[in-house]
Amino acid sequence: VQLVESGGDLVQSGGSLRLSCAASGSISTPNTMGWYRQAPGKQREFVADINSGAETNYADYVQGRFTISRDNANNTMYLQLNNLQTEDAAVYYCHLRQLYSTHWGQGTQVTVSS
């Protein structure tokens, strides 16, 4: 399984980005895809996830600013980031959990300037 993230960029505070994660290889269902993030000097933390039935979970700090979605036909997951704040700056990682395996992408950098 390979997970490839894209969409990270430098944005100003209050701006928006859309992250994508394309999964390829031996993808089985049911599964759960999710986003985690890691800022410098901090532990990796959960952002949001979505299962193959489109049920979603969000971290409390998201507060309605982020929206996760997926396209099962193309094994792609998205994360819409709105009203980005400087504290949202981090490397965002894609995660896939299947019945017998879990996988991580290499990450995409989100930088937010004040």
Structure characterization notes:
By secondary structure, the chain is an all-beta fold. Helices cover 0% and strands 54% of the residues. The chain has no helices and eleven strands. It has strands at 2-6, 10-12, 17-24, 32-38, 45-51, 56-58, 66-71, 76-81, 90-97, 102-104, 108-113. Strands 2, 4, 5, 6, 9, 10 and 11 form a seven-stranded mixed sheet that branches. It has a four-stranded antiparallel sheet with strand order 1-3-8-7, with no helix packed on it. Strand 9 (90-97) and strand 10 form a beta hairpin. The protein starts with a strand and ends with a strand. 30% of the residues are buried. The mean pLDDT is 97.
In short:
The chain has 114 residues and is mainly beta.
Question: What are the SSEs and their pairings?
Answer:
Layout: E1 2-6, E2 10-12, E3 17-24, E4 32-38, E5 45-51, E6 56-58, E7 66-71, E8 76-81, E9 90-97, E10 102-104, E11 108-113
Parallel strand pairs: 2-11
Antiparallel strand pairs: 1-3, 3-8, 4-5, 4-9, 5-6, 7-8, 9-10, 9-11
Key descriptive features of the protein:
114 residues, mainly beta, seven-stranded mixed beta sheet, four-stranded antiparallel beta sheet, 0% helix, globular
Helix content: under 10%
Question: Outline, from the CA principal axes?
Answer: globular
How many angstroms separate the termini?
Answer: 37 Å
Q: Which stretches of 5+ consecutive residues score pLDDT under 50?
A: none
Tally of contiguous helical segments:
0
- What's the story with the biggest beta sheet? 7 strands, mixed
> How does the helix and strand content classify structurally?
mainly beta
H/E order of the elements?
EEEEEEEEEEE
What Rg, in angstroms, do the CA atoms define? 13 Å
Per DSSP E runs of 2 or more residues, the count of β-strands stands at: 11
Q: Which percent band covers the strand fraction?
A: over 45%
Tell me which oligomeric state these chains represent: single chain
Mean pLDDT rating = 97
